[in-house]
Fold this sequence. Notes:
By secondary structure, the chain is mainly alpha-helical.
Amino acid sequence: MTSEQNALLSTAQSVSRFLETLTATDLPPAFAAARVALKTDLSRIAALANAQAQPLGGLTRHRDGVFDAGVEVTLIVADLVRGYARRAGLVELAAKVEITPSDLSRGRFSRRVQLMQQVYEATAGLAAAELTALGLTEARLAELKAKADAAEALHDVPRDAIAARRVITRQLRELISELRSRLRDELDPHMAARRVSDPVAYERYQAARIVIQRSGASADADETDTTATAETTAALADGGTTTATTAKLAA
């Protein structure tokens, strides 16, 4: 979330806390509904912001660890089978297991998975006597298959997470827009109507509508920043510092 969005979120939270203390019994139904809707908006934004702040590093490290384990056993099996295929003149088999470490450490993850599965299938096609002669046990083949399958299941996980985060970013932008409208077009007019009948509440509302800008933030610069980032959201969740500088929220 941008600093401007964070500032709007902060002021909305302040307004919501104030409205919880408003005990007047003459509130019109539309005002009461807007107060409830504001709490719902804030709850939805908090849930999305928390989801957006989840780090991708853990997913990527886990995937890389699974791939490394698969690469290790794939190369062991490929080397054994390739040597046997060359000695026996089995050209097609040799070609299927002609895999180098660089083949499994570069390029698309989907291609690396395909090579792991290719080595497994080529090896599984050998006769039991051939496998025994090479020292390839059923347990070793099962290990290769399991690790290749695990790599296949995970190769798109970080990409899927990034795609999901983009969806969350769009949803947050839409909710922030709704939140701004909720304050400006619903709650502000209702509180303005109470300016004379309840001046104390009106002044407290106005105080809640003050936006605290985050340290180092510029509202003008933030207007052009429409890309929500997990790092900013995480900083907000960790309780980032604020300055004493305040500014009225732009209408």
